[in-house]
């Protein structure tokens, strides 16, 4: 692919590649120049350097690998001279991007994913569309990515220190991770979250699945109204639900303490688990209902015909088929409980403090990067959890021959 | 289904094991370095001496008044001892949410036998309040961003020419109004007379107006240290202990501007309506946690002055850094040349009114 595409004419060097490179250089030069306090100089120098680079790469360096590596090395050296080690890293990144752009333009690669008959406008729109998609992706992921390096900060502030920017090992530390795993302020909430979330998930999955199956029967009167009520915890502002729950569960707790003689601590867990189960149920209902749409009713009739009772039919026929929906609903319920901060602040007492609660107070009272370490651990945990479940689901579909591939 | 059963059983075990082994005592505090000083100076020693008591912390002091009201209404009190600032204690005491107590019965006398009521003296500001520490709200500045002559007077905060750049102020009228009037030429002893009038309030707001577009408003005590560490502001007000922590423990290039610092107190209140058995534990803990030695110990961890007169001579060095704590105390004579005392009576009467005007000014 290094010589471009035979069917695409090579774009004009001076009329296309060089001017566009200059525009790209203008933007990058402005960013770098602003960082150095001289935006205007950066603007001009960036445009000139990028245009020259585009010309040189397109005319004299046909081997793409050599060109990109060479640009990266030169940019790294320039960056190192300007701003030390961190400058070198930025230089490598900018060098790779700019040289990729140069080849992408000059070899006609930019047309490679559109049909040959596309007009210039079509090509422009196609690539703009890709750029917009990329920007949306960046917009979604950038705030999370910023958190990761900050969690290794050696200082107790949410700040990239000069040592960190210079990649000095002194600027990095695992002390916030140590704090998370050793400090009872964090280990206790961690334990609480892992007690409360699974229990709430089990309750909401059981109840939500039953409700979804019941509501999918055509003979249930007032199905839509019941559905709307069941889903309402998702729609009513959380702070309103939380206030109501606070008074409701306070009375319930007092009753349980007075009449059943349970300890306050235990009642506290019961209250939070029930409240979180309520929040999780709508997610389960929605996902399971969606799966039930594709469920073939004649299967249950066939099972009944062969003498299976409703319970047996449910567990042997219906449940395995709607399991993907149940599992994803359960995942949502788990994450809802695991992430929830408003309701637990109202309903729980300090002995039921969960991780999000601790993070919330931590942010309010003491801006400690331990929160970022926790966030990093949680993000990793969520990714692992979702990947595992997805892989398991695909495997079981493959085993049962359900997957189209 | 087996997995479910196992999960349920283990969780139930964990929950009940936690409940059975100890009496849980829920203390409400502010989090951060301050709560850590309480933990080290009295909670941990108390738990070591009483293994059957387990202390749990709830960092809800900022919402203490609202939460105690809600708990009282719902009949569901989950707190045992609440750390509040003196101003909030007035409200809680008036509403009957905090318990009145007898200092000489509840609190330990000083080592030389001075009864607690004399040892704490005027710092017991109302019938419910059990003071722990004296703190001040004061300014810190970035030593590397203020040029060759660091600010030495409170009025440097209002001097944008000598000290250009953003400053952070608390998002409420208290303290800011007093400082504004002082720097607008009002004599210190007249400030509250002037501030009681509408013209005086407008005068203070007009003075604040001169720096309004250069102010970042904070509401949590941790904000200013973060802003100073970032270099986003050149100076900012917060509690002196937060500045100390940033300077001495985090080695930030921050200096203290002690001029016109405002003294206030922080202490415990016992919520009304505790059952007898829990109240007994709370009283036992309080007697220990507010004795002369314990309050002096607290100053090893944070630069707040002990509320007992008999604790002051016992203040020593920082527990980890080994530096002398006395020069970092707001009450140190070198730091306390020009101080305000939080005026509880004035702000109890005028807070709602001035708050409304201040917020309107902020939004305008």
TrEMBL record, chain A:
Keyword terms of this UniProt record: Cell inner membrane, Cell membrane, Membrane, Transmembrane, Transmembrane helix, Transport
Chief location bin: membrane
InterPro entries per record: MetI-like, MetI-like_sf
TM ranges: 12-33, 40-61, 73-103, 131-152, 194-213, 225-249, 269-295, 321-347, 367-392
Compartment list: Cell inner membrane; Cell membrane
PROSITE patterns per the UniProt record, alphabetical: ABC_TM1
Gene3D superfamilies: MetI-like
Entry membrane topology: Multi-pass membrane protein
Domain ABC transmembrane type-1 residue range list: 190-389
Family: Belongs to the binding-protein-dependent transport system permease family.
UniProt name for this protein: ABC transporter permease
From TrEMBL, chain B:
Swiss-Prot/TrEMBL keywords: Signal
Signal peptide: 1-22
Top-level lineage group: Bacteria
Name recorded for this polypeptide: Extracellular solute-binding protein
């Amino acid at each position: 692919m290094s010589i471009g595409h035979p069917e695409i004419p090579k774009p004009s060097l001076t009329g296309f590649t060089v001017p566009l490179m200059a525009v790209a250089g203008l933007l990058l030069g402005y960013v770098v120049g602003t960082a150095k306090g001289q935006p205007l100089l950066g603007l001009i120098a960036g445009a000139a350097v990028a245009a020259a680079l585009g010309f040189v790469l397109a005319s004299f360096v046909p081997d793409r690998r050599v060109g990109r590596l060479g640009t990266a090395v030169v940019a790294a050296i320039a960056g190192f001279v300007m701003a030390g080690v961190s400058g070198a890293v930025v230089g490598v990144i900018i060098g790779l991007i700019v040289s990729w752009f140069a080849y992408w333009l000059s070899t006609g690669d930019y047309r490679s994913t559109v049909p040959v008959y596309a007009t210039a406008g079509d090509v422009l729109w196609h690539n703009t569309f890709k750029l917009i998609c990329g920007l949306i992706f960046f917009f979604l992921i950038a705030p999370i990515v910023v958190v990761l390096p900050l969690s290794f900060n050696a200082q107790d502030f949410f700040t990239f220190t000069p040592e960190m920017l210079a990649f000095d090992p002194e600027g990095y530390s695992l002390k916030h991770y140590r704090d998370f795993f050793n400090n009872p302020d964090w280990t206790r909430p961690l334990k609480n979250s892992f007690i409360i979330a699974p229990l709430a998930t089990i309750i909401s999955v059981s109840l939500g699945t039953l409700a979804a199956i019941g509501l999918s029967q055509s003979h249930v009167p007032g199905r839509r109204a019941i559905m709307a009520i069941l889903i309402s915890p998702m729609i009513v502002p959380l702070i309103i639900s939380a206030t109501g729950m606070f008074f409701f569960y306070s009375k319930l707790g007092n009753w349980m303490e007075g009449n059943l003689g349970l300890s306050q601590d235990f009642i506290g867990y019961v209250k939070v688990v029930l409240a979180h189960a309520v929040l999780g149920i709508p997610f389960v209902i929605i996902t399971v209902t969606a799966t039930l749409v594709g469920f073939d009713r004649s299967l249950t009739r066939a099972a009944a015909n062969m003498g299976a009772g409703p319970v047996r039919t449910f567990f042997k026929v219906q449940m395995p088929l709607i399991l993907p929906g149940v599992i994803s609903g359960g995942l949502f319920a788990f994450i809802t409980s695991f992430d929830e901060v408003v309701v637990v602040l109202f309903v729980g007492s300090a002995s039921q403090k969960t991780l999000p609660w601790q993070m919330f107070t931590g942010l309010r009272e003491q801006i400690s990067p331990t929160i970022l370490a926790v966030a990093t651990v949680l993000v990793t945990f969520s990714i692992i959890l979702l990947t595992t479940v997805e892989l398991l689901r695909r495997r079981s579909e493959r085993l049962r021959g359900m997957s189209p591939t | 289904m087996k997995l479910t059963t196992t999960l349920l059983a283990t969780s139930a075990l964990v929950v009940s094991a936690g409940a059975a082994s100890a009496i849980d005592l829920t203390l409400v505090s502010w989090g951060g370095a301050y709560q850590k000083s309480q933990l080290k100076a009295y909670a941990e020693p108390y738990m070591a001496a009483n293994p059957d008591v387990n202390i749990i912390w709830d960092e809800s002091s900022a919402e203490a008044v609202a939460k105690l009201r809600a708990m009282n209404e719902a009949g569901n009190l989950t707190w045992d001892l609440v750390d509040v600032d003196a101003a909030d204690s007035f409200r809680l005491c008036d509403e009957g949410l905090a318990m009145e107590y007898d200092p000489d019965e509840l609190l330990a006398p000083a080592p030389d036998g001075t009864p607690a009521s004399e040892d704490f003296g005027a710092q017991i500001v109302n019938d419910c309040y059990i003071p722990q520490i004296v703190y001040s709200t004061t300014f810190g500045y970035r030593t590397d961003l203020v040029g060759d002559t660091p600010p030495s007077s409170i009025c440097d905060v209002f001097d944008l020419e000598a000290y250009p750049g953003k400053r952070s102020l608390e998002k409420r009228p208290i303290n800011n109004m007093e400082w504004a009037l002082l720097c607008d030429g009002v004599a210190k002893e007249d400030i509250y007379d002037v501030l009681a009038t509408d013209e005086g309030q407008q005068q203070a707001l007009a003075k604040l107006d001169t720096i309004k577009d250069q102010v970042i408003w904070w509401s949590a005590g941790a904000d200013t240290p973060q802003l100073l560490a970032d270099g986003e502001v050149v100076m900012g007000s917060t509690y002196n202990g937060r500045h100390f922590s940033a300077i001495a423990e985090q080695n930030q290039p921050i200096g203290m501007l002690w001029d016109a610092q405002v003294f206030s107190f922080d202490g415990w209140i016992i919520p009304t309506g505790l059952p007898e058995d829990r109240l007994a534990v709370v009283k036992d803990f309080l007697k220990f946690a507010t004795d002369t030695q314990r309050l002096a110990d607290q100053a090893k961890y944070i630069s707040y002055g002990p509320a007992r007169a008999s604790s002051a001579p016992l203040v020593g060095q920082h527990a980890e850094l080994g530096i002398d704590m006395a020069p970092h105390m707001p009450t140190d004579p070198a730091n306390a040349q020009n101080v305000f005392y939080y005026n509880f009576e004035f702000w109890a009467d005028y807070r709602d009114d001035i708050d409304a005007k201040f917020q309107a000014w902020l939004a305008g």
